Amino acid sequence: MTEEQHVFKKIGLMGDRVLRLAAVELCNEIIDNRYKAPEIIDYLCSNRVFGLIARMKKLQAHKDDPEVKGKSRQLANAYEYSIGKLYYEDKVKAIATAREDLAHFYENQDQYYVKKEA
To answer: What DSSP character marks residue 90?
Structure first.
């Protein structure tokens, strides 16, 4: 793994942690049934959801991403990286952005899962 790839993974990991924190904060505010919260947090922090958010934000796969398992995973990595990079610049803004993105997804899931017409 090159140095650039290592830095990419490190920043992406930080972004993943920020997104998980934002998901917990969001669930504390919107979920009445505390027993359902872990399930929703796991769903919101899945690669599939991160990939869908990345598509809506029109992100592209990052050039230093060593992942080769598929476009959705690469987009999820790019989204985690963007939040992680923002965290290193402005922690409060990164958490707020992550929370807004996850809240938007949760409230508008039907827009993210629209299938293309044949």
So the answer is: -
Rounded CA-CA distance 108/94 in Å is 21
Give, in order, the Cα–Cα distances in Å from 101 to each of 13, 82, 83, 108, 114: 18, 12, 10, 10, 18
Q: What is the pLDDT of residues 44-71, one digit of tens each?
A: 999 999 999 999 999 998 888 877 677 8
DSSP per-residue letters across 100-114? HHHHHHHHTHHHHTP
CA distances to 3, 12, 64, 95 from 47, in Å: 24, 12, 18, 18
Burial of 22 (0-12, 13-18, 19+ CB in 10 A): buried
User: Model-level pTM?
Assistant: 0.87
Residue pair 66/1 in contact by the 8 Å Cβ criterion: yes
